[in-house]
Backbone:
């Protein structure tokens, strides 16, 4: 009974993969979300609103987790509001659990905006860090909701005596519907539309991203890293970058993805061509494609998040992430990035989310 997990944000791209990994490893697992995912057999779903403290206390009344995994966030109009809302969500969950005295470890997932800046000033000139990104890089002199979330964890850990870990993945690639940051599925949907309409598969990002080195994080690898850090003494009270372990250039991978979907690849050509603009009128097209191939989701906004893909691929620098810290402490899991994308595409086909 010393492995009782509470996954906060269990319906998301990270949370859903984490709950699957925990369950397969024999953990008693609770999944908390506004609309819990019930696809994982054996998961104990909990519906709750993280911004409603009384609702949260009622929902978690009988739950005494040993390990808490916070994998959720909420986007707001300004970074100031991001800080207020996302800090409050972390505070509410930890304040609710505090009187129980059961929590041994809290793992918080943030990301590379820790180094690159918040949405309002993301990867702009003047805020560009040295790469590869390393955990010891100091915080930017900018408002950032990731810092607020971390500070809530640190304060609760000091109060309640649990250990913690911070996990900073690069772009997370994995299967989920309705997620706000979902590049892998977005590219699969875009490629499917291109194939159906005979359109070229046009690179939407910057020259630096097209030509430079990059990395990503497989959601399944991130799940293993979360469990490793939360159960390994040497990893206690540390922040970690989390990526697949290889690097790639989009100038190659873009062509490989195009070949997978049998569409024409068009690379960088003097200017950024945002995917949000390219897909602006595709909602009706996707609805027709979904009807034609009997797909499970006919709402384009549920399967594609062009704005976030543009954010990642439009950066003015190449972005690589150093993971030596985890390697030195014993986390040796590796994932080939091309396989990450191809395996995701096969999962999406099997789930009838793309043709």
Residues:
């Amino acid at each position: 009974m010393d492995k009782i997990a509470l996954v906060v944000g269990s319906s998301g791209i990270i949370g859903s993969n984490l709950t699957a990994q925990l369950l397969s490893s024999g953990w008693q697992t609770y999944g908390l979300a506004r609309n819990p995912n019930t696809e994982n057999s054996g998961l104990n779903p909990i519906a709750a609103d993280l911004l409603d403290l009384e609702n949260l206390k009622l929902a978690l009344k009988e739950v005494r987790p040993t390990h808490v995994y916070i994998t959720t966030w909420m986007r707001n109009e300004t970074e100031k509001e991001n800080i207020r809302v996302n800090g409050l969500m972390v505070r509410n969950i930890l304040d609710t659990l505090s009187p129980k005295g059961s929590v041994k470890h809290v793992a918080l997932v943030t990301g590379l905006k820790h180094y690159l800046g918040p949405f309002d000033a993301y990867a702009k000139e003047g805020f560009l860090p040295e790469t590869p990104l390393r955990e010891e890089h100091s915080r930017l002199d900018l408002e950032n909701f990731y810092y607020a979330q971390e500070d809530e964890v640190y304060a609760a850990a000091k109060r309640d005596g649990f250990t913690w870990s911070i996990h900073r993945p690069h772009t997370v690639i994995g299967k989920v519907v309705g997620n706000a940051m979902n590049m892998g599925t977005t590219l699969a949907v875009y490629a499917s539309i291109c194939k159906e309409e005979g359109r070229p598969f046009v690179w939407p990002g910057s020259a630096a991203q097209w030509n430079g080195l990059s990395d990503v994080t497989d959601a399944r690898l991130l799940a293993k890293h979360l469990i490793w850090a939360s159960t390994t003494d040497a990893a206690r009270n540390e922040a970690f970058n989390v990526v697949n372990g290889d690097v790639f250039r989009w100038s190659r991978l873009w062509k490989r993805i195009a070949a997978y979907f049998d569409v024409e690849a068009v690379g960088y050509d003097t200017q950024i061509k945002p995917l949000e603009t390219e897909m602006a009128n595709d909602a009706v097209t996707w609805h027709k494609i979904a009807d034609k191939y009997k797909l499970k989701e006919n709402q384009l906004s549920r399967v594609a998040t062009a704005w976030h893909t543009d954010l990642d691929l439009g950066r003015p620098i190449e972005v690589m992430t150093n993971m030596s810290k985890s390697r030195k402490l014993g986390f040796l899991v590796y994932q080939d990035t091309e396989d990450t994308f191809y395996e995701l595409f096969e999962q999406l086909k099997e789930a009838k989310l793309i043709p």
In short: The CA atoms of residues 110 and 330 lie 21 Å apart. The chain is about 40% helix and 15% strand. The radius of gyration is 20 Å. The chain has two domains: 4-169, 180-214+247-317+336-351.
